Protein: MALR1 protein
Organism: Pygoscelis papua
Amino acid sequence: CFNSGSSCEKCDFETNLCKALQESNLQPGWIRRNGRSGMGPPYSDHNGNDSAYFLSLSSEMRSSSATLRTNVFLPTDKEHVCQITFHYWISQMSGTLVVGLQKLSEDTITNIWQVSGELQDQWKANTITINSTEKYEV
């Protein structure tokens, strides 16, 4: 859920990548699939639905990295807080999931959250709150 103030945009990948992640923001290696795809775990989404879609790294990408980039979010303030809640699954010990913030005036991406190799093979949820005085991407 991409939450800015009172509006909340839910993204479930059922029909497409949703507004926050366009096709152009999808690097090679990411696949939209479900638990019935025959590609190994996870065999369902975080609700236990084996026909529900999620994004997954292809098996060829095991040793490299791939990025998902959101569209541009507007600056945050007291009235417009940005909270992003996401579900994730890490299936290999060496895997690391990083959430980064890139302000439009900067070339660098600042890491704001990351997880690696803990509690394998189960869905976990995380919520991050973002504060930025200028437009940004995640």
Summary: The longest strand covers residues 96-103. The two ends are 13 Å apart (CA to CA).
